[in-house]
Inverse folding.
C-alpha cells in the first residue's frame, strides 16, 4: 500500500472567493483577500482548500454557470492572482482543489452562442438538441418547484436543448469526443497553474448518456477512468473528488474495482442518515449507511461533510425519516427547499447549542473518510433565510466586529453580511473567537489537530462496536498496529455506557514486541482529556457520557497520545 496518498489524512475547507475577503472595496471577495487569510486557514489546520467556481460567469447559479473555462472572473482578480494564490498555498503546504463544472455551460458561453446560431457551427454537437419537446421533459428536474422542465425551446436554433439543471445551463454533450478532449484540456490548464485536483460537479449527469430518446440512465463509467489517467499522467498526486449523490450499490462502479476511476466521492448516503440520527437519536440507519458504503478500493476515500453550499438534500431518506428531520431542523416551509431539503446552516439547525455542535463536528471529523469543512462553520455562522433558494447559507465570512464583519469596506456588499441577532457578525466573528480560549473556533482548531494526529480514521478499517443503546455510536478504527475508539452520544440525556472492546487489537502481535495483548485491550487513553478508562475484571469499560457527549480514545496506554507509526 502506498502511504503517501495525501487525501487520506487531509482536512478540506470549502469556500467561495467572492464571499471570503474583499480587498478592493467593491463588495465582492477576491484572490488577494483570500491570500491574506491563508495563514488563518493554515493555523486552523486546513490542509487543502476546495474553491467553488471562480471562472467568468453571469452568476445566475453562484458561478456554476461558467462562460469561460480558462479565466478568472474579473470580480475576483486575474489569472496572475490565481497563480500567486496557488503558489502561496504551496509555500504553506496546502493543496488546492477547484470545482470543475463540465456537465453544462452557461447559456452565455460562446460555445452555446455559436451552437445555437447555425447547424453548421463547429459547436452544434457540443450540446444536446431535439426537434420536438420530449414527452418526459418535466421529469428529472433537479430543482423541483423552481425548475419546470429539462428541455427548453431555443428561438435561434429552432430546437429544444437539454438542461439537467436551470434553463440557463445547457448540458454539454459529454459523449462527444471533442467535448471530452476539451474537458481534459481544462483540467490540464488548471493543473499547470498549480491545482491538485478537482471537485467534479454533478458527476452522474456528466457520465450519463444524454438525448431525447434516452429514458433510463445509462452511465459511461469509463469516462471517469480517462479523466483519472489523464490527471495522474500530468500530475502524479492529483485527484477527483466527485459530487455524486448515488446509491451504495453503484459506489464501486464510480470508484472502479481497482480504484482506477475516482479517488474520492462525497458520502451523501452517510450525510443524510447522519442528520436523521442527529434529529432522532436513532443511530441504526446511520450504522446501516456506514455498512452499505463500507466497500471501496484501498486507494479510494469518502469525503465526509455536514453542510455544504447547497440545500441539505434528504432525498434518499424514507418519507417518515425526512419528515422527522424537517420537524427537528426546518419546521417552517421557508426553511425547506426543492421538496427534499433544508436551506439552513448547521448552527441554527442545532439551535446554536454548543454541546450539539461539538458532537456533530466531532462525529464528522471521525467518520470513515476525509472531513470537508464549510467556511464559517468553524465559528458557527448562521444563515439568512430572506435570501433566495440556497443563497441563505452563502453569506460573507464574518471576520470581526468592524462594519460588514471586516469582509469589505463597501457599505453594500454583493451578498449581504448577517447583521444583528444571534448570528450577526457583532456576536459571531473570527476576531472575538480567536481571543477567547473557550470559543468554538479554538475548539475546532484543537479537534482538527486531533483528527490529523489520528490517521487510523482516514487510513484504517472500522468496525461498529455493539452497544445496547441506539442513541450511542461506538466506532473502532485500526491501522498500522494502532486502534482508536470513538464514542458519540446522540441523546439529550446522560448515558452510562458499559461495553467490551472486543475487536482483536493488532498491537503486540509482531515478534519482538513486548506489549501484551491484554494490556493494549484493557486501557483506553483519552485523547482530549485526562479521563482515561481502565476496564473491570470482566474486560468491560464503563463510561459516563454527558448529554451529546463524545470521547476519542486510543486503545492502549501512551503518555504522548500520538499514533505510533509502524513504518
Ligand atoms: C451541484 C452544485 O453543488 C450546485 O450548487 C449547482 O447548482 C449544480 N451542481 C449545478 O451546477
Amino acid at each position: 500500500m502506498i502511504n503517501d496518498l495525501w487525501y487520506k489524512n487531509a482536512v478540506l475547507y470549502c469556500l467561495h472567493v467572492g464571499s471570503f475577503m474583499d480587498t478592493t472595496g467593491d463588495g465582492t471577495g477576491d484572490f488577494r483577500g483570500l491570500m491574506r487569510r491563508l495563514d488563518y486557514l493554515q493555523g486552523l489546520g486546513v490542509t487543502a482548500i476546495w474553491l467553488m467556481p471562480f471562472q467568468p460567469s453571469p452568476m445566475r447559479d453562484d458561478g456554476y454557470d461558467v462562460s469561460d473555462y480558462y479565466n478568472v472572473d474579473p470580480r475576483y482578480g486575474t489569472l496572475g492572482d490565481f497563480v500567486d494564490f496557488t503558489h502561496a498555498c504551496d509555500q504553506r503546504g496546502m493543496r488546492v482543489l477547484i470545482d470543475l463544472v463540465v456537465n453544462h455551460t452557461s447559456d452565455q458561453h460562446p460555445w452555446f452562442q455559436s451552437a445555437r446560431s447555425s447547424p453548421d457551427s463547429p459547436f452544434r454537437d457540443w450540446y444536446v438538441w431535439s426537434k420536438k419537446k420530449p414527452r418526459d421533459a418535466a421529469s428529472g428536474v433537479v430543482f423541483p418547484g423552481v425548475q419546470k422542465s429539462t428541455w427548453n425551446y431555443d428561438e435561434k436554433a429552432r430546437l429544444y436543448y437539454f438542461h439537467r439543471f436551470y434553463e440557463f445551463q445547457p448540458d454539454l454533450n459529454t459523449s462527444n469526443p471533442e467535448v471530452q478532449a476539451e474537458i481534459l484540456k481544462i483540467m490540464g490548464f488548471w493543473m499547470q497553474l498549480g491545482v491538485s485536483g478537482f471537485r467534479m460537479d454533478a458527476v452522474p449527469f456528466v457520465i450519463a448518456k444524454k438525448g431525447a430518446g434516452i429514458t433510463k440512465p445509462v452511465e459511461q463509467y469509463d469516462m471517469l477512468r480517462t479523466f483519472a489517467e489523464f490527471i495522474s499522467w500530468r500530475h502524479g498526486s492529483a485527484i477527483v473528488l466527485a459530487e455524486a449523490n448515488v446509491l451504495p450499490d453503484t459506489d464501486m462502479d464510480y470508484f472502479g474495482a481497482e480504484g482506477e476511476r475516482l479517488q474520492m466521492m462525497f458520502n451523501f448516503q452517510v450525510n443524510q442518515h447522519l442528520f436523521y440520527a442527529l434529529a432522532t437519536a436513532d443511530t441504526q440507519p446511520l450504522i446501516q449507511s456506514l455498512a452499505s458504503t463500507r466497500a471501496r478500493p484501498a486507494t479510494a476515500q469518502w469525503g465526509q461533510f455536514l453542510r455544504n453550499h447547497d440545500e441539505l438534500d434528504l432525498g434518499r431518506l424514507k418519507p417518515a425519516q425526512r419528515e422527522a428531520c424537517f420537524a427537528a431542523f426546518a419546521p417552517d416551509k421557508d426553511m425547506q427547499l426543492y421538496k427534499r431539503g433544508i436551506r439552513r446552516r448547521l448552527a441554527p439547525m442545532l439551535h446554536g447549542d454548543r454541546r450539539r455542535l461539538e458532537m456533530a463536528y466531532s462525529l464528522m471529523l471521525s467518520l470513515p473518510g476525509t472531513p470537508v469543512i464549510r467556511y464559517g462553520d468553524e465559528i458557527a455562522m448562521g444563515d439568512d433565510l430572506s435570501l433566495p433558494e440556497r443563497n441563505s447559507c452563502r453569506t460573507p465570512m464574518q471576520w470581526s466586529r468592524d462594519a460588514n464583519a471586516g469582509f469589505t469596506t463597501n457599505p453594500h456588499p454583493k451578498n449581504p453580511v448577517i447583521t444583528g441577532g444571534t448570528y450577526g457578525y457583532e456576536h459571531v466573528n473570527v476576531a472575538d473567537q480567536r481571543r477567547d480560549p473557550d470559543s468554538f473556533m479554538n475548539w475546532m482548531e484543537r479537534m482538527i489537530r486531533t483528527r490529523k494526529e489520528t490517521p487510523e480514521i482516514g487510513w484504517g478499517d472500522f468496525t461498529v462496536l455493539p452497544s445496547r443503546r441506539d442513541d450511542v455510536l461506538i466506532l473502532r478504527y485500526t491501522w498500522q498496529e494502532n486502534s482508536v475508539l470513538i464514542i458519540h452520544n446522540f441523546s439529550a440525556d446522560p448515558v452510562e455506557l458499559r461495553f467490551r472492546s472486543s475487536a482483536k487489537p493488532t498491537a503486540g502481535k509482531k515478534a519482538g514486541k513486548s506489549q501484551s495483548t491484554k494490556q493494549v485491550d484493557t486501557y483506553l487513553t483519552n485523547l482530549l482529556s485526562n479521563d482515561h478508562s481502565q476496564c473491570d475484571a470482566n474486560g468491560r469499560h464503563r463510561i459516563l457520557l454527558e448529554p451529546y457527549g463524545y470521547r476519542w480514545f486510543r486503545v492502549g496506554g501512551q503518555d504522548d497520545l500520538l499514533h505510533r507509526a509502524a513504518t
